[in-house]
Specification:
This protein is of the alpha/beta class and 245 residues long. Helix content is 49%, strand content 17%. The chain contains 9 helices and 9 strands. Strands 3-2-1-4-5-6-9 form a 7-stranded parallel beta sheet, sandwiched between helices. A two-stranded parallel sheet has the order 7-8. β1, α1 and β2 form a beta-alpha-beta unit.
Amino acid sequence: MRHVLIFGATSAIAQAVARRLAAQGAAMLLIARDADRLAAVSDDLRVRGAAKVEIEVMDALDYERHASLVGIASERLGGLDVAIIAHGTLPDQKACEQSFEFSLREIEINALSVISLLTHLANHLEGERRGIIVVISSVAGDRGRQSNYIYGSAQGMVTIFMQGLRNRLHASGVQVLTVKPGFVDTPMTTDFKKGALWASADKVAEGIVRAINRRRDVVYLPWFWRWIMYIIRAIPEPLFKRLKL
C-alpha cells in the first residue's frame, strides 16, 4: 500500500491521479484550499477503494505551514511514499504585463510556493532515503513565448529547480519526477478552443502513474509534446521572435 500526499488535490489532474491510486488501495492525505471540494473528493476516493483518506485545508502561499504538513502527512499515513504537487493558476498574461504585482503573485503561486514545498519534502525524504516526489509543471517552461511568458517563467523555474533536486537526491534513492503536460482539457482551460493536441486529465493521469511506476525523471504528456517542444526549442532566436506564439 502506497502512502500518498497530494498538494492541490482538487485540481483536475490531481483528482484523476488520485482516482487511479485509490483503485490500487493507496492511503492519501489531500491538501487544497477549498474545504467543500476537498470533502467531496475524499468521499469519492473512499468509494473507489482508497485504504484511507485524510484532508487538510491550506492556501499554497501559507509558507509557515509547509514544513509541518509534510510531517503531519507522514504521521497520519504511517509513512510517506509519494508526494505530488499539483496546484497552480493560469495567469492573465496581458494583466501581468501591466502589473508587476500581478506577475509576482502568479510566480509565487506557480513557482515559489512549489519550491518551498519541495525543499521540505526533499529534506524529509532524503532522511528516509526513499520516496517519490512528483511535480506537475508544463511544456510552457521549455521556452518563453509572448502568449504566456509569465506562466512559462514560473514553470521554467520549477523545472530547473527539479533538475538540481534530482541530481542532489539521486544518491539517497529518492525519485524526482517532472511532469510536463501540453494542452489539457480542465476547468482552468474552459475558455480555450480545443483541438487535436488537447488531452483529457485522465489521459495525463494515466501517464503520470506509469511514469511513477517506471521511475522516470521527466515525462511529456501526451508523449508527442516531447517532439513538439524539441522543435520549438530548436528555432533560432532571430526567427523565433518574429513568430506569433
